[in-house]
Sequence to fold (226 residues):
Amino acid sequence: DGGITQSPKYLFRKEGQNVTLSCEQNLNHDAMYWYRQDPGQGLRLIYYSQIVNDFQKGDIAEGYSVSREKKESFPLTVTSAQKNPTAFYLCASSIRAGGSYNEQFFGPGTRLTVL
Amino acid sequence: GQQVMQIPQYQHVQEGEDFTTYCNSSTTLSNIQWYKQRPGGHPVFLIQLVKSGEVKKQKRLTFQFGEAKKNSSLHITATQTTDVGTYFCAGLNTGGFKTIFGAGTRLFVKA
Fold:
């Protein structure tokens, strides 16, 4: 059963704690992405990775970090430096980052609430 | 930087009425994609347009890509309650690797 998974679905953390969100895909896609969505808002790109061991900052990378040590995994760490971390986080993947094969497949998302 | 503007932000329609959302880019696009996000769900890919002036149809949905490859539209004929959700356009810059999403148009359909 191919797809992209995110865990957990809901996550609660205390202010000042770092938290890591999981994203795994078995679609053999080269590119992976992290987005943040606030209530009633669009998708804002946090980080993206075109290939293993490579990643680039998106539009709102401050306070976040990522790694891409394996093709199928792209975890996102929300650090204590992120001033307003409560949001819905979406992970996505695509065959390529550019060109004709960049349609994105999204995971179910993780709703992070910082108390 | 590249911007993708989408209007309207919200649209309320009576079931059976038509609906259109518009997308405009500040730069020429390599392609444009459309996604649908149901309330509480995640975005799902609908279609990709690549060619200048391209028109594609999926049942009651019609997608257009402008001649200059800077704008696009999604038109739904005779809306149904199953059409509710937020529709996003997403543009890829020519030669680029980063897809920029519009803010989305949220569609409400009253039965």
